[in-house]
Amino acid sequence: MTTSSTTPALRIGLLGAGPWARNTQAPALAAHPGVELSGVWGRRAEAADALAAAHGTRAYTGEEGIDALLEASDAVAFALPPDVQAPLAVRAAEAGRHLLMDKPVATTVAGARAVAEAAEKSGVASVVFCTLRFAPETAAWIAEQAAVDGWFTARAQWLGSLYAAGSSSEYADSPWRREKGGLWDVGPHALSVLIPVLGDVEHLTAAAGPADTTHLILRHTSGASSTVTLGLSAPPGAAGVEIELRGERGTASVPGWAGAETAFRGAVDALAEAVRTGVPHACDARFGLHLTELLSAAEAQAGA
After folding, report:
1. Could you give the CA distance from residue 97 to residue 84 in angstroms, rounded to a whole number?
2. Which of 8, 4, 63 is nearest to 38 (CA)?
3. Would you say the pTM of this structure is higher than 0.70?
4. Residues facing 126 on adjacent strands
5. Are 1 and 273 in contact (CB under 8 A)?
6. Tens digit of each residue's pLDDT (9 = 90 or more) over 35-79
């Protein structure tokens, strides 16, 4: 997205100042030609100060800081745990601010529904950042496969080694990821690819695997089926992402992508387009609610 001399920049404030905000959202927002990074809010003042200083914007903290950042922004981006994100997204929507949320929107159906309903009632645009829906390489691939009929089955594996022995990832310190595991952290990514290609999920079966691994069997409205394996505790040699479709025309495998920051810029573009046109994006708060409904059902089955 580019702006003309008559189109003002979209002022986007960032809620969150941890590693995800530092590595992805803040640099993408600060470098975007159509965006003004209107400020950074953090629960820890020192983290907010450091991130804001790195990108030439203002730092906010505390409850009053949230209100001040909303006042200074047209939209807000979130880099917070899902169940911290959800009530703040409701608050932002009620203040008339557009929403650029991380996945999952919430880990409870009630929390995600509150966000979707607040966005709808307030008439604000919303986008949920599922990486593969916005990375240029994978977004184009998804659109190409969705235009093809005759898919028979699909296989998706998204295995990380975040919690494997010897892992030094800074994301391993995330309490919500450790509690909820791969189902909730990487499950939205896999589902956000399979659903637009194969159709909505009309039947779901889930079972627990080793450590935090979860296996899903899905029946889609197109008649196709898919299997999904998700986890964050695989040995490093077993980690990786594979999504393969099989159908009348053969097989298709998801391509690689440049990285999260590039994908996030695509999500910013999508939000700006939804703001400009008033047309909801397919990966909006309502879709985020549906993902939470599916993941909640899977969690209940796998934990039974």
Report:
1. 17
2. 8
3. yes
4. 99
5. yes
6. 999 999 999 999 999 999 999 999 999 999 999 999 999 999 999
What is the Cα–Cα distance from 273 to 279, expressed in whole angstroms?
A: 8
CA-based nearest residue to 229, from 177, 239, 220, 221: 239
- Can you say whether the dihedral through the CA atoms of 236, 19, 44, 272 is positive or negative? negative
Give residue 82's identity as a one-letter amino acid code. P
| Rounded Cα–Cα distance for residues 148 and 32 (Å) | 33
Nearest to residue 83, comparing CAs of 207, 5, 176?
Answer: 176
What are the helix and strand counts (H, E) for the chain? Answer: 12, 12
Residue 33 corresponds to which amino acid?
P
Model pLDDT for residues 249-301, shown as the tens digit of each residue: 999 999 999 999 999 999 999 999 999 999 999 999 999 999 999 999 999 99
Q: Which amino acid appears at position 172 of this protein?
A: A
Q: Kindly give, in sequence order, each residue whose CB lies less than 8 Å from that of residue 143, ignoring residues fewer than 6 positions away.
A: none
Q: Which residue reads 């235009």 in tokens?
A: 147
- C-beta atoms surrounding 253 within 10 Å: 10
User: Amino acid letter at 169?
Assistant: S
Cβ neighbors of 149 (< 8 A, separation 6 or more) are 248
Q: Distance from CA of residue 98 to its chain's centroid? A: 15
CB 229 within 8 A of CB 215: yes
Q: What is each CA distance from 139 to 64, 100, 213, 256, 295, in whole angstroms? A: 38, 17, 26, 11, 22
The set of residues, in sequence order, having a beta carbon less than 8 Å from that of 73 and lying 6+ positions away, is 11, 12, 13, 38, 39, 97
> Which token pair is 123?
């008439």
